[in-house]
Amino acid sequence: MKDLSIFFKAREIEENFEDFQVGNKIVFHTQNNFPELKEWGIAIIECPEYRNHTESSINENPIDLLLPFYNLFCGDDWNFDIYDLGYILPGNTISDTYYALKTVCSECLKKNILPIVIGGSQDLSFSIYDAFRSNEQMVNMCFIDRELDLGLGEVEIKSNAFIRHIIEDSPCFLFNCSTIGVQSPYVKKNELDLFSQLYFDVLRLGELNDDFRSCEPLIRNSDMLSIDTNVLRLNEFESEKNSPNGLYAEQLCQIAKYAGMSDKLSCFSIFQSLDLHHLKNHQLLGEILWYFLDGIAQRKNDFPKCNKKDYLKFIVHLETLNEDIIFYKSPKSERWWMEVPYPMHKESKFERHYLVPCTEEDYHQTMKNDIPDLWWKTFQKLSI
């Protein structure tokens, strides 16, 4: 493993934590010691890089930022190592920061260490994607955001204009992109049209509020999840940039728990945190991280990629396609997946994506001879 200490500045922690507090469980990067990362664990990385934010204004205080999180008490069965690696100092150029974050995340993923990245502006998601690409892994990305951040017509990467650069990357390792919490007043029609043409997923705020559990399969289908704090309601997050509409704090905490419970998800990030220096926002950040870790503690290891013999299997014949759709239900968690026909000529790198998380409602929908949207989109992407 590469020497990652060269990218970090240690966090100065003077607090004495009680037994069972999160801070007492964490292995900190100190001035004299960088943690030895063991196989499987969680690495907290702070990256206060804002130069590509649409409104460049930096307020970094990494000590106060995470202290409310450290003062919380661990949940049950938190049987994993947690490392606080400190924070990546912005480089001489923003490309230097991108490279540092990509390298750190790539090395963590190779060692089965799940990085939690706290930003910084959301264009840093490009670096995380780049980490998956450097490991030659096809990736499903999920964004919790009121906007789509495509950046059509933008030449440079910005915090609200970076996904186009991922799509146009060659070779491209992006298989799917989902955005949850989208608000129509903040989205251009041509961006929605492109998402539709690429068979990407958009879950609007209204749809989410009508059926909150509809976001769970999209999260469970993702390798990395990125939260933009602008998705929160103004009353929930102290910032002039947030709108009156948006997610409630408890909804975002539940999303974080869904992400933690997903066996597939291997990177979690929170960005656009220019205003996280407000005490109220500190506390919310701490609770979001807590629920994510509590979700990890409740993972069932039931992604039915290899061995499906222990799963309940349901076969539904669709007359409209003259095709069988196969569903699997986990006896451990009662979660559902559906199988999409996998073209034999496709490269093995797509193999992880033909089992699509779904809900029991998708099964009942198929019983009515109606094709589930997630099945159809995945079929189209695999057939291209």
Report what the structure shows.
This protein has 384 residues and is an alpha/beta fold. It contains twelve helices and 14 strands. Strands 1, 2, 3, 4, 5, 6, 7, 8, 9 and 10 form a ten-stranded mixed sheet that branches. Helix 9 (249-261) packs parallel to helix 10. The two termini are 37 Å apart.
Which tags fit this structure?
single chain; 384 residues; alpha/beta; Arginase, Chain A; 10-stranded mixed beta sheet; 4-stranded antiparallel beta sheet; 14 strands
Radius of gyration: 20 Å
N- and C-termini, Cα separation = 37 Å
What would the CATH topology of the largest domain be?
A: Arginase, Chain A
Uncertain segments: 57-63
Major beta sheet, specifics? Answer: 10 strands, mixed
Report the principal-axis shape. globular
Name the CATH homologous superfamily of the largest domain: Ureohydrolase domain
- Please tally the β strands and state the result: 14
Summarize the structure.
The protein is an alpha/beta fold and 384 residues long. The protein has 2 domains: 5-297, Arginase, Chain A, CATH 3.40.800.10; 312-383, no CATH class.
Record the SSE blueprint.
Layout: E1 8-9, H1 22-25, E2 27-28, E3 41-47, H2 62-70, E4 82-88, H3 94-110, E5 113-119, H4 125-134, E6 139-144, H5 163-167, E7 174-182, H6 189-197, E8 201-204, H7 205-210, H8 216-220, E9 224-228, H9 249-261, E10 267-271, H10 279-297, E11 312-318, E12 323-329, E13 336-339, E14 355-358, H11 360-367, H12 373-383
Parallel strand pairs: 2-4, 3-4, 3-5, 5-10, 6-7, 6-9, 7-8, 9-10
Antiparallel strand pairs: 1-4, 11-12, 12-13, 13-14
